[in-house]
C-alpha cells in the first residue's frame, strides 16, 4: 500500500471515528508532531513512517512543478502542497468543527 493509500484509509477511518480523529489531531500539540503521528499510526496498524510522509509530499510537489509550464524556474511557487500531514489535519479539523 502506498503512503497516499494509507493516508486515504486513515482519513476515512478518522472521519467515521471521532475518538481516532481526536487522537490524530492531538499530535499537532506535540513537540515533534510528525514522529508522534507516525508512531500512533503504526500502533493502529497503519505502516507509516516520517520519511514516507515527507517523501510522498515532496514527490507530489515535484510532479506538480514539472506539470506547470514545463517545470522551469518560472513555475509558480505552490505553498503547502507538499505537506500531507497538515493537509490531513486540516481535513480532520474541518470534520471536527462540523460535528
The end-to-end span amounts to: 30 Å
The arrangement of helices and strands along the chain is: HHHHH
Shape: globular
Query: What is the mean predicted local confidence, pLDDT?
Result: 82
Major β-sheet profile: none
- Helical stretch count? 5
Structural class: mainly alpha
Alpha-carbon Rg, integer: 15 Å
Number of domains: 1
Query: Percent range for helical residues?
Result: 55-70%
How much of the sequence is in beta strands?
under 5%
The count of strands amounts to: 0
Give the uncertain stretches in residue-range form. Answer: none
Oligomer state equals single chain
Folded structure, characterized:
The protein has five helices and no strands. The chain is mainly alpha-helical. It has one domain (3-98).
What key phrases describe this protein's structure?
single chain, 99 residues, mainly alpha, globular
Which secondary structure elements does this structure contain, and how are they paired or packed?
Blueprint: H1 3-16, H2 18-26, H3 33-43, H4 50-67, H5 84-98
Helix pairs in contact: 1-2, 1-5, 2-5
Describe this structure in a few short sentences.
The chain has one domain (3-98). Helix content is 68%, strand content 0%.
Amino acid at each position: 500500500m502506498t503512503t497516499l493509500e494509507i493516508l486515504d484509509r486513515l482519513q476515512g477511518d478518522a472521519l467515521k471515528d471521532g475518538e481516532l480523529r481526536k487522537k490524530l489531531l492531538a499530535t499537532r500539540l506535540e513537540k515533534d508532531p510528525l514522529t508522534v503521528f507516525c508512531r500512533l499510526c503504526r500502533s493502529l496498524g497503519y505502516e507509516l513512517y516520517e520519511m514516507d510522509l515527507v517523501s510522498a509530499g515532496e514527490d507530489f510537489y515535484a510532479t506538480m512543478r514539472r506539470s506547470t509550464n514545463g517545470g522551469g524556474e518560472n513555475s509558480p511557487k505552490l505553498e503547502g502542497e507538499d505537506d500531507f500531514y497538515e493537509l490531513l489535519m486540516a481535513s480532520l479539523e474541518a470534520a471536527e468543527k462540523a460535528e
